[in-house]
Fold:
Amino acid sequence: MLNDIFHFNGLYRIQSKKKMIPSEIKGKWINGENLLTSNDVNASLKNHPWWQGEELVTLVGADVSFRSGLFLTEPDILIKKQFFVPSPNSDIMDFDFVDVNKSMILWGERTKFIRAIFGDQADKLISLAKDLKSIIINEYFCHEAGHFIGYAIRSKYKYGYFKVNGKIAWPLVFTEEFRADLHSFGFAANNLSSQSSISIFIYNILLRFGVELQSRTTLKDGYGAVPFLLFSFLYQNDIIDCDCYTRTIRLKSLDSEFLLNKMLLADQYAYENLTRCEHLNIVDIQINAAKFYKSITTDAELVFKFNSIFSNNLI
Structure:
């Protein structure tokens, strides 16, 4: 299957909107050495102490040659089968997939924002993410695994976890993305080589912060509160310094052991604060996530430091 070309043509919508738009996408599936697959990820999930046995990952990386409609105009790089209705002449979309080419293009657009945030450390950090295609695919697999640890994201959608009184509760959405990020770091550290897993960690930090500054500069949607939640974890756990005078962030160490230990710490942090209670009923899980979100976003010191970097550094 993974050597085959694909051609999807039909109606598609993005997660945050209801309107479906005629959209088309063509390309071929990507496989190769050093790339995670759904089988790899699911084998690890089945042995994971925090997996609840509910859902498994169905994901593929894609080399895209043509896009139209929302596949072209939206920045989302994850194409979700649940939001696609095929035309009669279309292939059937049996799994989610990552538009790797689009992600690489967007990365190129974001490097100037990354350089502005990380100053003289930026080149070194970017060099750690040089095998970009592999990093993009593996990072997304690890992120998806993070969503399936604890109360799986598909179950959360199914039972209305992300809505309160019929409306999307964005703090729950942002907290879930942050939770998946932190679990993805532990998943990478436990399932990939040290170099590959550290590359994913650095890539995620650069991506989240680069998009945040890009969003504030261009006034376009970014990742919402996810970069701030990540900043809070990194700052409070002595992974980064931030200089409000130069408006830059710096990782305190690029030593492999230091970074791997912090990745495992992130995984445990997500468990202790969020995932540990996800065996409870859905309302209790919502309440816990909302309390966690509020405790972070109302921390005046964190808000000041974050805004000092990102509000005063517009390009």
Observations:
- The chain is about 50% helix and 15% strand.
